[in-house]
Amino acid sequence: MKALYLLQQGDRLTRAEFERRFDATPDLKRAELIEGVVYLPPAVSHDDHGGPHARIIMWLGNYCVATPNTDFGDNGSLRLDLKNMPQPDGYLLVRPDCGGQARFENGYVSGGPELIVEVSASSVSIDMHAKKEIYRRNGVKEYLVCRVFDGAFDWFVLEGGEYVELQDRDGVFDSTVFPGLRLDAKALLTGDLPGVQQSLNEALALPEHTKFVTELQNRKTKA
User: Fold this and answer.
1) For residues 30 and 77, what is the distance between their CA atoms, to the nearest angstrom?
2) C-alpha span between 184 and 108 (Å, rounded)
3) How far apart are CA 157 and CA 144, in angstroms?
4) C-alpha to C-alpha distance for 30 and 200, rounded to whole angstroms
5) Bridge partners (DSSP) listed for residue 84
6) CA-CA distance, 43 to 207, in Å (whole number)?
């Protein structure tokens, strides 16, 4: 029987071995494998992470409610490739049976979902460099970074295999992949939940969103 070693910060492992150790440690709630290196994030505060994270999950969840055949996740481990199994703060995807690019394997998301969000306080350096690169390499179409300490929000779109920064309109972003997914980043960063919801509702009422919902349903019917 193969010996079991606990995950340690800085361990260099394959994804399979990382997953084996993670699954065998039920009390461990958060761990990531980035370019073959284990990261065990520290405890986080409400102001620096918990609050912004919750607002982002609320935003993604409300979009999913209005957009059948999409799905979202909170802190789920992603099977990206043999050296990477990150645990992003949030992600949004098109369901596999409706043409989504990710798949579900043994309860895990396998492959890059269409959109990933990271809340960055102490983790800015890894989120804006190593993670950004592995998400790009694995075809994540939109990558969002909420830089809490800077009071800023970055939205990257995959174009020609590279990330380019999406330009906002006075702090408001519109997804290029998910019609109707609009974010008032200023409202989110300041905790203005009604403002976040109002901006999203305005975009969900547009004909582009209605068309997208119909397209997803048609794809499912043909699958």
Assistant:
1) 9
2) 30
3) 9
4) 30
5) 81
6) 43
Spatial CA neighbour of 74 closest among 51, 57, 59, 58? 57
The yes-or-no verdict on residue 223 having pLDDT over 70 is: no
Read off the DSSP letter of residue 46. I
- Read off the tokens for 94: 């098109």
For residue 185, what are its two tokens?
């980043």
Spell out the alpha helix ranges (H) of 2-123.
15-23, 51-66
What's the whole-number average pLDDT of the chain?
93
Rounded to whole angstroms, the Cα distance separating 186 from 169 reads 11
Q: Which of 145, 137, 142, 144 minimizes the C-alpha distance to 161?
A: 137
* Structural domains of the chain ordered from first start: 45-222 (3.90.1570.10)
- State the pLDDT confidence band at 24, using cuts at 50, 70 and 90: confident
Other Cβ atoms less than 10 A from the Cβ of 212: the count is 20
Each residue's pLDDT tens digit, 118-137: 999 867 888 999 999 999 99
Cβ pair 72, 61 in contact under 8 A: yes
CA–CA dist 13, 94 (Å, integer):
30
* DSSP-derived secondary structure for 104-151: EETTEEES--SEEEEEESTTHHHHTTHHHHHHHHTT-SEEEEEETTTT
pLDDT beyond 80 at 28 = yes
